[in-house]
Write a structure and sequence with these properties.
Blueprint: H1 14-20, H2 40-47, H3 51-56, H4 58-71, E1 77-78, H5 85-89, E2 95-97, E3 101-103, H6 123-126, H7 128-141, E4 147-152, H8 154-163, H9 171-179, H10 181-205, E5 209-214, H11 221-228, H12 230-246, E6 254-258, H13 265-269, E7 275-277, H14 284-291, E8 296-301, H15 310-324, E9 329-333, H16 343-357
Parallel strand pairs: 1-4, 4-5, 5-6, 6-7, 7-8, 8-9
Antiparallel strand pairs: 2-3
Bound molecules: coproporphyrinogen III.
Residues 32-37, 46, 51, 78, 80, 82-84, 96, 101-102, 150, 166, 213, 215, 259, 336 line the site of coproporphyrinogen III (CP3).
Length: 363
């Protein structure tokens, strides 16, 4: 890994321009989980190897990251990995169970288990495979589109470490916030420190923009969010930008995606993230009113709209772009692709964004 690596020049910088609030010829578009099981070529690779082995093998991670770009004229690649590599690097075992998703066989049962975790200073050594995957992918992309690096946000990661798997209520993890506020802060701090070094490492390795997934924002509400999520999201953004500046590298645009966190938009707009992702439950006009004119918004078509026919998708995209406007906007779904979705319908989504966002005078 080296920040001196020379990468091919970027030929499509729409995503970076939109993130920084600059003018674009057409609205950039990508899709969360664009590299995934809805693609037969992904399933083919996945049938040969375990999920985390795929993440840990740079050649494979690179290959599946590029798969959606071979099919669709996407304006970004997102590195194939998972948010749960952080708890794994902190010493927790994690497995991907078919039909169930990620599972931790020994989740954190109480504050005393925090001592089981390794040091946040060591995560970058353990996650070198992600950095290698980023560097390889950035080269293989040949400047076709910017490469997105990512991490989970501390509360979302903490929730997985305590619940051990997905949960409808997150009552164990939320129980910690109410019963053990100090230990919760201690755990969130460890995850935050690890995440900052990890994201800086991703930038050094070739990531051109970063997204922080607060996928479990919906469980918090304004009070818990302000106490247990916001300060850590702030620290991640500020510390990553500071370290990148100290390395003498160009400022890195950052996206925060608070899934289910409509109540947190105003608080998030006060942080230094250039882009705020919104899910489909938030009206774009309301989101714009809340965050003001100086943030880029990302989103937010209901992913399930991709089950509709192509004509419906085309109309829904047209309406979405009318509401968001062409400036300070990155088109995306309001959450990730599902495995049973038709790739042709993602193609319809991408094409519709480009078609309906062309400037009247561009060809
Ligand atoms: O294309 C991309 O978006 C890049 C790759 C990516 C994956 N996970 C690959 C993946 C990204 C950005 C993630 C982030 C991630 N992982 C999040 C945040 C985004 C979100 O969905 O809110 C979360 C919560 C996780 C944890 C996780 N990983 C879950 C809950 C699951 C199971 C859900 C499912 O779809 O089965 C995963 C597995 C996972 N991560 C898959 C992929 C392609 C599918 C697993 C498989 O191939 O068996």
């Amino acid at each position: 890994m080296s920040c001196k690596e020379v990468f091919p020049a970027l030929k499509n910088d729409r995503l970076l321009r939109a993130a920084r609030g600059e003018e674009v010829d057409i609205v950039p578009v990508w899709a969360m989980r664009q590299a995934g099981r809805y693609l037969p070529e992904f399933r083919e690779e996945r049938s040969k190897c375990d999920f985390f082995t795929m993440c840990q093998t740079p050649r494979l991670s690179c290959k599946v990251t590029l798969q959606p770009l071979e099919r669709f004229p996407l304006d970004a690649a997102i590195i194939f990995s998972d948010i749960l590599v952080i708890p794994e690097a902190l010493g927790m075992q994690v497995e991907m169970k078919p039909g169930e998703g990620p599972v931790f066989p020994s989740p954190l049962r109480g504050p005393e288990d925090i001592s089981r975790l390794g040091s946040p200073d060591d995560v970058c050594t353990k996650l070198n495979y992600v950095f290698e995957a980023l560097t390889l992918t950035r080269k293989e992309l040949q400047g076709r589109a910017p490469l997105i690096g990512f991490s989970g946000a501390p509360w979302t990661i903490m929730a997985y470490m305590i619940e051990g798997k997905g949960s409808k209520t997150m009552s164990n993890a939320k129980g910690w916030l109410y019963r053990f506020p100090e230990a919760s802060h201690q755990l969130l701090k460890i995850i935050t420190d690890a995440t900052v070094s990890y994201l800086v490492g991703q930038v050094k390795a070739g990531a051109q923009i970063l997204q922080v997934f607060e996928s479990h924002a919906e469980h918090l509400g304004p009070y818990l969010f302000r106490e247990f999520a916001l300060p850590y999201l702030k620290q991640i953004c500020d510390d990553v930008k500071k370290s990148v500046a100290e390395l003498g590298m160009e400022d890195i645009p950052m996206i925060v995606f608070p899934k289910g966190g409509h109540y947190a938009l105003k608080d998030l707009a006060a942080l230094n993230y250039e882009v705020i992702g919104i899910d489909w439950t938030v009206d774009p006009i309301l989101a714009r009113e809340i965050v003001g004119p100086n943030k880029t918004l990302q989103g937010n078509l209901d992913p399930c709209a991709l089950y509709a026919d192509k004509e419906f998708i085309d109309n829904a995209v047209k309406e979405m772009i009318e509401k968001f406007g062409r400036n300070r906007y990155i088109a995306n779904l309001g959450h990730g692709m599902y495995p049973d979705m038709n790739p042709e319908h993602l193609a319809a989504f991408v094409d519709a964004v480009h078609k309906h966002s062309k400037k009247p005078d561009s060809t």
